[in-house]
Amino acid sequence: MSVADPIARLVKELARLPGIGEKTAQRLAFHILKAGAGYAGELAGAITGVVRDVRLCSSCQTLTDKDPCALCADPRRDARTICVVEGVPDLVAVERTHEYRGRYHVLHGALSPLDGVGPSELKIRELLLRLEQSPVDEVIVATNPDVEGEATALYLTKLLKPLGVKVTRIAQGVPMGGDLEYADQVTLARALSGRREL
Ligand SMILES: [Zn+2]
């Protein structure tokens, strides 16, 4: 080994992160070493803290360090409308539009039988439980406009409509195959306001 073992160990761990190659990992490791013990402590603490303190909101399933999360605890938000999204970044994207004042439900994925993702891998049971506990007027399905997102929307519609819930789907405008997370604010706001009933 050409570098000291502790450096090699750090490089190896950093290189496991998405988008970080061997070279970048090395650059980061030397940067951390140079920055000193104070920074290393902060970084290590932040990494440990995120795993220790962040959990799922027991209601909407978003990532939070408080349960219920700030969105669920906010009495100004309309509890009778639920916007269903695939992931937390999608929730953040919808929030960025400042157009939506209801609550959310995060599925943590989309149906994808080929990848072994069935309904039980998603937070669908939790959604049904929520609807049982407090009735809602509308569920807006804001899954991504790709094959998995559409399949998930269809599945949710079949599941929720018999319960007497109005199910709507965000309008086209978010490009097909696109990702909600990367849609610009105006496009996403328009897609939300132009939603149609399923
Ligand atoms: Zn919540």
Automatic annotation (TrEMBL):
Keywords: DNA damage, DNA recombination, DNA repair, Metal-binding, Zinc, Zinc-finger
SMART domains cross-referenced by the UniProt entry: HhH1, TOPRIM
Toprim domain residues: 80-175
Biological process (GO), any one: DNA recombination
Family annotation (SUPFAM superfamilies): Recombination protein RecR (SSF111304)
InterPro entries (alphabetical): DNA_Rcmb_RecR, Hlx-hairpin-Hlx_DNA-bd_motif, Rcmb_RecR, Rcmb_RecR_Znf, TOPRIM_dom, TOPRIM_RecR
UniProt cross-references to PROSITE patterns, sorted A to Z: RECR, TOPRIM
Alphabetical list of Gene3D superfamilies matching this protein: 3.30.60.80, 3.40.1360.10, 6.10.250.240, RecR Domain 1
GO terms, molecular function: DNA binding; zinc ion binding
ZnF start-end (C4-type): 57-72
Role according to the record: May play a role in DNA repair. It seems to be involved in an RecBC-independent recombinational process of DNA repair. It may act with RecF and RecO.
Family statement: Belongs to the RecR family.
Name of the featured protein: Recombination protein RecR
Species: Anaeromyxobacter diazotrophicus
